[in-house]
């Protein structure tokens, strides 16, 4: 089983983005396998989205719901999806997380509207992680 397979099978992953000054900002998120990448879904105005827009350098690690990692962090590169890509991520979330995923997506759409969330594609890189 590859690292991508293992992370895609996790219920939560710890997505760590980096501020301009290099400080790490870890966030536990749902993630799904999307071909050769992981896909994550987030509010469009979230801090992690702003940091990814500035620099796509991230790390990912398996974690629990509270963000406590239970595996090694892996270096990756994140990019924001367009509207069609975001719809695809929503569908993948619905498939993996079933009823809870559907309810979360519905609640988010009611609160934020269709454009209030964005899909994020995370491609694992070969370089070693600098996040401990």
From TrEMBL:
Gene Ontology CC terms, in alphabetical order: cytosol
Keyword Oxidoreductase in record: yes
Domain of life: Bacteria
SUPFAM superfamilies, per the entry: FMN-binding split barrel
InterPro entries: F420H2_bilvrd_red/Heme_oxyg, PPOX_F420-dep_Rv2061_put, Split_barrel_FMN-bd
Keywords per UniProt: Oxidoreductase
Sample GO molecular function, one term: oxidoreductase activity, acting on the CH-CH group of donors
Name the record gives this protein: Pyridoxamine 5'-phosphate oxidase putative domain-containing protein
Protein species of origin: Micromonospora echinofusca
